Amino acid sequence: MALSFAVNYIGVLVAALVSFMFGWMWFGPVFGKIWMKAMKISPREAEEMSKNGVLVPIFLGFILALIGSYVIAVLIASLGIVTVKGALLLGLIIWLGFFFTTHFGNNMWENKHLNIFYLYIGQDLCRILIICLILVLM
Hints:
The chain is built from six helices and no strands. By secondary structure, it is an all-alpha fold.
């Protein structure tokens, strides 16, 4: 089976933008305080982190969102997924096989607060499903 790299680049860009903005909302206004508490980051420390420059992390975060969206677009094209059900199933499989297992292993070895684990896997699941849906619907 040959992989098809004929992807919708506009769809990849839109999926990356929406995914990136979703991540900002998730770890900002929605769950930011819970994340900071679980990571033991004080509001003062958060303010200092933002003063030290956020442009590079923002830029790199968006590049990572582009890469992830492109890889998922290649999978969708290669597998011939054209339905919402197929997109959601692929997103769930990607999340379970890669994101859930990675975060679970990291959390187990790093002995971090369970809220960190829940925040990361929840955000990843929603983000991957959003990317898959956008790519199939565009």
